[in-house]
Design brief:
Amino acid transporter; transmembrane; transmembrane helix; mainly alpha; membrane; 0% strand; Amino acid/polyamine transporter I
């Protein structure tokens, strides 16, 4: 029986919402307070500028490669073509692990905001764990029922989210006080904290590659991958910078650092506590949209690796009715649920910070490899002369340097965790490679026994 294939059911509008929606969500709702704890106003603004520029360079590499190689798997496919199967595996391994770990961070953010309305979610860890598990499996089910259904729901939530952020920006701008931005570089939070802040702001840009990851399900990918990537990151970048600057100006740096729900707290301060609760509910709805998109992306990278035999073939199973990679969705959600179980004794805030750093470190090498892949694949073009090569390599080179700088800024402990995660994949690759070779030998043996000539 022929293996069912993924269905091309994503147009430009949904693809753009996938990019913007995956980027926005838990990051922007939680980061203003996290950044205020790490750095001063000047370092935060500088970190957003540097991260925005670096992420745009990386997004252009993803857009260019996604247009040339529109196959499900995005960064896995690019690095495999440029550097071979092992590098392709490492990209798939890091991205997939970063994705299901990141899903935990997104769901923790949902519980953190919902906990301000229903305190039992934060006060009773068992109830909190059950709530996050239900959220995880409801949206896993939606993804199994079809990419178009998941895409439509996320598109509606992303549009709602954009209007919510625009409303916040207007309110914060009205109550903006320039004095709240001073001193720009307070004692202990000077320019030296910029790299640390940038490692956190990058979490808000994770997802810029979403259109390339789902390329096999995007209609007219040669055009829509590039457009959706550029449109999605442009929308998110402008909103991010405006939200963070106006949040500091409206609340003040020191108070912002102590807030557990900064956007809701700021609106409550100026519009009353009732409005804050409404915004908190809106925040939960917005982050739910991010959950849908990230579950989709997590499954697609594993599906692509499973198709090539780099991951177990179970990941490549497609539902006969809904044409979705249902096994990749289920396996990723099982692992996410286990991590939720391991973290349910911690506070949501401490768990969120740790998980986002670990997930971000998983993506950074993937981003660096993607930028390097564009350079390598351009180098392989015969018609490319040296001058043209230097000219077209400038943007991916800048993206590569930015990714390296962000890895440095993540800190020694986080880099160590990321390196250990990478090393953990090596035995897995060796096992899968040996298994593939054994399958090839079996096929050659059967071919030879059937009277065919030896296959080399």
């Amino acid at each position: 029986m022929e293996q069912p294939q993924l269905k091309k059911d994503i147009g430009l509008f949904i693809a753009t919402a996938l990019v913007a929606g995956n980027m926005m969500g838990s990051g922007i709702f939680m980061l203003p307070a996290t950044l205020a704890q790490k750095a001063g106003p000047g370092s935060i603004i500088l970190a957003w500028i540097l991260t925005g520029m670096g992420s745009i360079f990386l997004a252009l590499s993803f857009a260019n490669l996604g247009t040339k190689y529109p196959r499900t798997g995005g960064p896995y496919e690019f690095s495999r073509r440029a550097f071979g199967n092992f590098t392709g595996f490492l990209n798939a391994w890091l991205y997939w692990n970063g994705s299901w770990i990141g899903n935990v961070a997104v769901i923790i953010a949902i519980a953190s905001y919902a906990g301000s309305i229903f305190p039992i979610l934060t006060n009773n860890h068992v109830v909190g764990f059950v709530f996050t598990s239900v959220v995880l499996w409801v949206f896993t089910g939606i993804n199994i029922l079809g990419v178009r259904l998941a895409g439509k729901i996320q598109t509606m939530i992303t549009a709602f989210e954009i209007f919510l952020f625009l409303g916040f920006i207007i309110v914060a701008a009205i109550h903006f006080h320039g004095a709240n931005l001073t001193p720009l570089f307070p004692h202990g939070q000077g320019l030296g904290t910029t790299s640390s802040a940038a490692s956190s702001t990058l979490w808000a840009f994770i997802g810029l590659e979403s259109a390339t990851v789902a390329a096999g399900e995007i209609r007219n990918p040669e055009r829509n991958i590039r457009r959706s990537t550029i449109l999605g990151i442009s929308i998110a970048t402008m909103l991010y910078m405006a939200i963070n600057v106006f949040a500091i100006g409206a609340m003040g740096h020191s108070r912002l650092a102590q807030s557990s729900a900064p956007i809701a707290d700021i609106l409550s301060q100026f519009l009353g506590g009732g409005v804050g609760k409404v915004v908190t509910i809106a925040a939960v709805i917005s982050i739910l949209g991010t959950t849908i998109g990230w579950l989709l992306s997590t499954a697609r990278i594993a599906f692509a690796a499973g198709e090539d035999g780099v991951f177990p073939k179970a990941f490549a199973k497609v539902h006969s009715k809904y044409q979705t990679p249902y096994m990749a969705l289920i396996i990723g959600s099982v692992l996410a649920n286990l991590l939720l179980l391991m973290n349910y004794t911690k506070s949501f805030n401490s768990a969120f910070i740790f998980v986002t750093l670990l997930a971000t470190l998983s993506y950074l090498p993937v981003y660096a490899f993607t930028a390097a892949s564009e350079i390598m694949l351009m180098k392989k073009m015969k018609e490319m002369n040296l001058l043209k090569f230097i000219k077209v390599s400038l943007i991916p080179l800048l993206g590569f340097l930015y990714a390296g700088w962000a890895i440095y800024g993540s800190g020694a402990q986080t880099v160590m965790y990321g390196f250990l995660l990478m090393l953990a994949g090596v035995p897995f690759y060796l096992y899968m490679n040996q298994r593939r070779m054994s399958e090839v030998d079996t096929i050659e043996q059967k071919h030879y026994e059937a009277g065919g000539s030896p296959v080399h």
